[in-house]
Amino acid sequence: MEALLITPSLSRLKPRLILPFSAPTAAAAASSFFPLRCPHRLRLRLRSSASADQPPPSLEPLDPRAEEDYGEVNRIIGSRVVRSPEFADDGSVSAVAATEYLIEWKDGHAPSWVPSSAVAADVVAEYETPWWTAAKKADAAALSALLCDPDASRDPDAEDPDGRTALHFVAGLGSEECVRLLAEAGADVDRAERAGGGLTPLHIAAGYGQPAAVRALLAAGAEPGALDGRGRTPLELAREVLAATPPTAIGRRVGLEAAAAEVEAAVYEWAEVGKIIEGRGEGKRREYLVEWRDGGEREWVRAGWVAEDLVADFEAGLEYGVAEAVVGRREAKEGGGREYLVKWADIEEATWEPEENVDPELVEEFERREAHDGAAAKESAVMGRGSAAHVDIV
């Protein structure tokens, strides 16, 4: 009597590897089910019948991470992005991102993580399509429902094939509500896309002229000085796009100008630089370790955010201090010109400095004060002489 001892698998895991297999021995054919291990340790399932005239058993690859044959996939209940190092021939190391899905099995086994390449496309689509549809429409209600689904967890940093997250799409569409929603769910507001130029959500919001999204991202902690793949900040990108936008595109230009203004305000809210301590990097990636005038911890700041005169003095090797006032003036002994006696905020002793090293406003203030004091002294002297004459007459 012919009897099929195990039904074909209903698993919707995609086969990852097809291995050559020879016909089993008679003893093996008589067994109804047993696992095999190939050199690559791929879990295989053998289906056979007890009849000798049946065709050779077939092999069905299963999840290579699985320890048991789980059977049919019920649905995906979670996702995550896993990054692993990849070593190039030149010795450099880069991070390779791969998506894994948390599979719920119909036979009651505990959910397990499975690489996306091992899951059938229709199963993935059932899980992914609603998320990306909501993101690409900036549908806050749909995103909220998916994030709050009690039966399935959602990774707010889920990536599409280009490494973009939902935050990239809603930022480009200018949805302040969606930006806040995703940020509150834990989305990385500074995540750079892997393709398309390494843009962060703030780059995209600024480049598309979406000031509301820019505000929401900055409020969520987005870094206004983040660099894209070409070394541009969001502000620089917005200005670049604005310069290329024709004057007739009035609405577009207004949006870009407003977005640039939002980023610029965030950049210059930092503080006033008191002193440059150190520099590093070259070209557009040049940065300076600065000391803030109002105190606080020292920070590395992009060269473009530091006053040009401070940068020039630092690169020329000049020491730079915080001057409080000019308290004296004299003619320079060598080379001509004037020197000013400067009182410093961080140095007890005043020093003589050439005019070009002194803040013009302090010089102007000193000259104005000197002129006023000179006029007052002259008036006092005239009044003194008048009183003496009056005494003589008396």
TrEMBL record:
Keyword Repeat among record annotations: yes
Region of interest (Disordered), residue spans: 47-66, 372-394
Superkingdom classification of source: Eukaryota
Domain Chromo: 321-378
SMART domains per record: ANK (SM00248), CHROMO (SM00298)
Extent of the ANK repeats: 162-194, 197-229
Record-given protein name: Chromo domain-containing protein
Naturally occurring in which organism (per UniProt): Canna indica
Record's keyword terms, sorted: ANK repeat, Repeat
Database matches in Pfam families: Ank_2, Chromo
